[in-house]
Amino acid sequence: MTSSTDTTVVPAHHYVPENLPTHIQHYINGKFVDSVGGATFDVLDPVSNENYATAAAGQKEDIDLAVAAAREAFANGPWPKMKPRERARILNRIADAVEAQEARLAELETFDTGLPITQSRGQALRAAENFRFFADLIVAQFDDAMKVPGAQINYVNRKPIGVAGLITPWNTPFMLESWKLAPALATGNTVVLKPAEFTPLSASLWAQIFKDAGLPDGVFNLVNGLGEEAGDALVKHPDVPLISFTGETTTGQTIFRNAAANLKGLSMELGGKSPCVVFADADLDAAVDSALFGVFSLNGERCTAGSRILVERAIYEEFCEKYAARAKNIVVGDPHDPKTEVGALVHPEHFAKVASYVEIGKSEGRLLAGGGRPKGLPTGNYIAPTVFADVAPDARIFQEEIFGPVVAITPFENDDEALSLANNTRYGLAAYIWTQDLTRAHNFSQNVEAGMVWLNSHNVRDLRTPFGGVKASGLGHEGGYRSIDFYTDQQAVHITLGTVHTPKFGA
Ligand code: NAD
């Protein structure tokens, strides 16, 4: 691919954290173990693209063992029956441990994923917060009771469901694992986690954190491996009634099909191509800051990236000029250097995919910044923050999720056109709206096809709100009480108070 000469770089050096494991195992029933058949896969770091470890490659028999342990811990162990406060104490200890290991977690995450170190640090704190949040929620949780005067009292008996299968992607792996682990465990389920094969390093830290916090053996099980092997076996296992999946839309479709035989509960957080809509009355400088962060943070490898920027014609050229100038200034390079704003993409396969979209973009839009590998970074998975303007709505870079530091900018003439452009993709995860006009903001929010909308902001989460997408971006919502609902059964218990009128058949 061509190189980009106008990118600001910090040179990469191959920083390797101390005491790195050379082999990553499963964790089943309180013990670190290898695959029964001894299978392994190689794990590389995205700066050198050299293998630094092998990981146990879980097969069906390994998933069977993990599910059996989780099933036993659910059926006969203390966890599902504990009082919420007792479980919450353990969840808070987990949060303390995650926080205490922040620096170590951050360096491992940055080493394994290529995310800039300043952004990995935030991930550990967010992971801890997820545990604290659900600890609070289960203690405060109460359920409905309904009275039919003189006839019935009915109440909801909320119960954990069983073994939850958790399948997670490689972008911000530890934080996204916490997003599923915390509510699944808080509600009394037991779990089998299958982390992404590109980034198994940080997931192995959970085992010790959980053990030290007092989580009973068998409640948390971890099986590493490829999606088509370990992930597939988990999805098809008859003793796993729930699958919570975050990943690509096409993988979600496969999982949906494979879960049908056992009619599993499914929660799916899938891909996105979210619009960032900037009206002429917006605070332009704030919009530029936010739209840059919204797509170039986390190396652009974020599901909620505002990767299509739609700008009202009156400010279009000014916006493009300011945006491109800043994109050229973004510091790309060594993920461990605190100056770095965009690090290395996770894996050479993903790098090749993003690089191919950069080339496609050159015939679909006007290249304003980036456009290839930054000069000065000849190796590693680096791509310069790349900005295309004048991108037509039928362009591939407008329609398809790139999941890298690449953005498409398109002009619009009026509110109707902005809305129709915003909705013109198969995805519907997030939307970002920039305007000072409240009526317009509310009307646009009502009509935009997105699971989540932010007004005059990038993605700032409130953990109580529903998280999820519509259309090809997902199925169901997690977040706050929605997560509690997904991981529990709400059994209706009907208590008869009076005489029940019963037709006397056969009398
Ligand atoms: P992916 O779909 O390739 O893999 C995700 C996980 O699924 C991995 O653990 C993988 O091993 C497993 N998997 C793959 N095939 C499987 C199969 N047949 N059966 C069971 N499991 C299988 O996704 P990725 O490349 O790791 O992650 C990037 C994608 O995730 C992007 O599309 C991004 O938008 C999406 N994502 C969405 C959200 C959200 O909340 N909506 C958050 C983060 C990432």
TrEMBL record:
Pfam families: Aldedh
PROSITE patterns tied to this protein: ALDEHYDE_DEHYDR_CYS (PS00070), ALDEHYDE_DEHYDR_GLU (PS00687)
Aldehyde dehydrogenase domain location: 33-493
Gene Ontology terms describing biological process: 4-hydroxyphenylacetate catabolic process
Record keywords, A-Z: NAD, Oxidoreductase
Keyword 4Fe-4S: no
Catalytic center residues: E269
Protein origin, superkingdom: Bacteria
Annotated GO MF terms: 5-carboxymethyl-2-hydroxymuconic-semialdehyde dehydrogenase activity
Record SUPFAM superfamilies: ALDH-like
PANTHER family recorded: 2-AMINOMUCONIC SEMIALDEHYDE DEHYDROGENASE
UniProt similarity note: Belongs to the aldehyde dehydrogenase family.
Protein name: 5-carboxymethyl-2-hydroxymuconate semialdehyde dehydrogenase
